[in-house]
UniProtKB/TrEMBL annotation:
<dbReference type="GO" id="GO:0016212">
    <property type="term" value="F:kynurenine-oxoglutarate transaminase activity"/>
</dbReference>
<keyword id="KW-0808">Transferase</keyword>
<protein>
    <recommendedName>
        <fullName>Aminotransferase</fullName>
        <ecNumber>2.6.1.-</ecNumber>
    </recommendedName>
</protein>
<feature type="domain" description="Aminotransferase class I/classII large">
    <location>
        <begin position="26"/>
        <end position="376"/>
    </location>
</feature>
<dbReference type="Pfam" id="PF00155">
    <property type="entry name" value="Aminotran_1_2"/>
</dbReference>
<dbReference type="InterPro" id="IPR051326">
    <property type="entry name" value="Kynurenine-oxoglutarate_AT"/>
</dbReference>
<dbReference type="InterPro" id="IPR015422">
    <property type="entry name" value="PyrdxlP-dep_Trfase_small"/>
</dbReference>
<keyword id="KW-0663">Pyridoxal phosphate</keyword>
<dbReference type="InterPro" id="IPR015424">
    <property type="entry name" value="PyrdxlP-dep_Trfase"/>
</dbReference>
<dbReference type="GO" id="GO:0005737">
    <property type="term" value="C:cytoplasm"/>
</dbReference>
<comment type="similarity">
    <text>Belongs to the class-I pyridoxal-phosphate-dependent aminotransferase family.</text>
</comment>
<dbReference type="InterPro" id="IPR015421">
    <property type="entry name" value="PyrdxlP-dep_Trfase_major"/>
</dbReference>
<dbReference type="GO" id="GO:0030170">
    <property type="term" value="F:pyridoxal phosphate binding"/>
</dbReference>
<keyword id="KW-0032">Aminotransferase</keyword>
<dbReference type="InterPro" id="IPR004838">
    <property type="entry name" value="NHTrfase_class1_PyrdxlP-BS"/>
</dbReference>
<dbReference type="InterPro" id="IPR004839">
    <property type="entry name" value="Aminotransferase_I/II_large"/>
</dbReference>
C-alpha cells in the first residue's frame, strides 16, 4: 500500500555504488565528494559557531548575514540582483532547493524538460512533484540539438531544468546556447530551474554564465547553488535558491514545511566561506584541473574512450571495446575485481545510451587517484 510516486524511481544508484565500494574495499570514484579535508578556517568557523551558541533554528529561509553575503556574491559573480529579504532561500543542500522549487511550481501533469545525460536526482524530483519528464538528448559532442529542444516545448511545459557545469558529462553551456534556451522560455512562458552547484569548477579559461543574468530571464529563473562542491563540505547540507519574490514566497512555504531550515551553525560558518579571496576559487579550479588531466589519461590508458570535461569533476567514459558486459555488470565487475567503483551510465540516461558508459569522479586526493590508476591498469591485461 505505497504511494504510486515511490514506484517511479529507485534508490540512488550513486549512493548504492558507495555502499558496494565500502563492502569490497574499493576506491570510490563513484560518488562526487572530496576525500580530502574541508578548508581549515571553515571548520574553525563551524566549531566557533557551535561554541558561540548558534544552535537553534535560524530564520526559516536562512540566516540574515548569510543571505546578505549571497546577495553580494550573486551580484558580483552571477550578475544577478537578488534581494536578500525576498529573493533568497537557504535550503538543506541544493538537493532540497531543487525539490522545493519543483514542488512550488508543478501541477500534476505539467511537463519538465530535462537534457540527457542528466544528474540522477532530476527524475525523482519530477516524479515526486508530479511532473512528466521530457528528456532532450544532447548531441554526441554535447551540443544542443536545437530542433529536438524546440519541439520538446509545448503548452504543458512548465519548467526546463538546466545544469551548468554539467554532471555527468562536464558540459559548460555557452552564452549562445543559454540565449537560445532563454528565448524558448520567454516564447513559451516557461521557468528555467538551473542547478549551478559546480559554478566555480571550470577549465581552460571558461566562464560561468547564469541564465538568470540574460535579458528577460531574471523573473523566470530559479538559480540553485550551494556550498557542497565549492568549499568541499558535502555533508553540511547548505544550499540556496535565488528567485523573483513571488516564486521565492512559494519556495519558502514548501521549504518551511519540508525542513524548517538549514543547519544554523553551518549557515553561520558559510559567511566565512563567502569572504574568501578570489585566489581561493582559482586554486580550487586549478587543483581540479590537474586531477582531471590525471584521471583522463589513466582512463585512456586503461582502454576507455572519453572527452575532457569542460567543468565539474566527473568523466563520463565509454566502456572499453571488447568488454561484453553492460554498464551495471561492468560497474559491479570493476568494484569486485579491479577495486575501483564508478557509476553505471544508465543512471544518467533515460535512453539506452548510458548502457555503454561509466562515470568516474576525480574529486579525490592525488594518492587516491594514483592508486585508482594503478588498479585500472589491470583492465589492460
Ligand atoms: N546537483 C548536482 C548536479 C550534483 O552533482 C550534486 C551532487 O553531486 C548535487 C546537486 C547535490 O548538491 P547538494 O550537496 O548541494 O545537495
Amino acid at each position: 500500500m505505497l504511494a504510486r510516486r515511490t514506484g517511479y524511481f529507485v534508490e540512488s544508484v550513486i549512493r548504492d555504488m558507495t555502499r558496494l565500494s565500502l563492502k569490497h574495499n574499493a576506491i570510490n570514484l563513484a560518488q562526487g565528494f572530496p576525500d580530502f579535508p574541508a578548508p581549515l578556517t571553515l571548520k574553525q568557523a563551524a566549531a566557533a559557531a557551535i561554541m558561540g551558541d548558534y544552535n537553534q533554528y535560524s530564520i526559516t529561509w536562512g540566516a540574515k548575514d548569510l543571505r546578505d553575503e549571497i546577495s553580494q556574491k550573486a551580484r558580483e559573480y552571477n550578475h544577478i540582483e537578488a534581494d536578500p529579504e525576498s529573493e533568497i532561500t537557504m535550503t538543506c543542500g541544493s538537493t532540497e532547493a531543487m525539490m522545493a522549487s519543483m514542488l512550488a511550481l508543478i501541477n500534476e501533469g505539467d511537463e519538465a524538460i530535462i537534457f540527457e545525460p542528466f544528474y540522477e536526482n532530476y527524475g525523482p524530483d519530477a516524479a515526486v512533484s508530479g511532473a512528466v519528464p521530457r528528456f532532450v538528448p544532447l548531441n554526441d559532442d554535447n551540443s544542443i540539438d536545437e530542433d529536438a529542444l524546440e519541439s520538446a516545448f509545448n503548452r504543458k511545459t512548465r519548467v526546463i531544468i538546466l545544469n551548468t557545469p554539467n554532471n555527468p558529462c562536464g558540459k559548460v553551456f555557452t552564452k549562445g546556447e543559454l540565449k537560445m534556451i532563454a528565448d524558448l522560455c520567454v516564447d513559451n512562458d516557461v521557468i528555467a530551474v538551473t542547478d549551478e552547484i559546480y559554478e566555480y569548477i571550470l577549465y581552460d579559461n571558461r566562464k560561468h554564465i547564469s541564465i538568470a543574468s540574460l535579458d528577460d530571464m531574471k523573473d523566470r529563473t530559479i538559480t540553485i547553488s550551494g556550498f557542497s562542491k565549492t568549499y568541499s563540505v558535502t555533508g553540511w547540507r547548505i544550499g540556496y535558491a535565488l528567485a523573483e519574490k513571488n516564486l521565492t514566497s512559494a519556495i519558502r512555504k514548501v521549504h518551511d514545511f519540508l525542513t524548517v531550515g538549514a543547519p544554523a551553525p553551518l549557515q553561520h560558518a558559510c559567511v566565512t566561506a563567502l569572504r574568501y579571496p578570489g585566489s581561493y576559487y582559482k586554486e580550487l579550479a586549478s587543483m581540479y584541473d590537474e586531477k582531471r588531466k590525471f584521471l583522463h589519461s589513466a582512463l585512456i590508458k586503461a582502454g576507455f574512450k572519453c572527452n575532457m570535461p569542460e567543468g565539474a569533476y566527473y568523466i563520463l567514459a565509454d566502456i572499453p571495446e571488447g568488454v561484453n558486459m553492460d554498464d551495471m555488470e561492468f560497474a559491479k565487475h570493476m568494484v569486485s575485481e579491479i577495486g575501483v567503483a564508478a557509476v553505471p551510465g544508465s543512471s544518467f540516461y533515460k535512453s539506452e545510451a548510458g548502457k555503454h558508459k561509466l562515470r568516474f569522479t576525480f574529486s579525490k586526493k592525488d594518492e587516491t587517484l594514483m592508486e585508482a590508476a594503478e588498479r585500472l591498469e589491470k583492465l589492460r591485461i
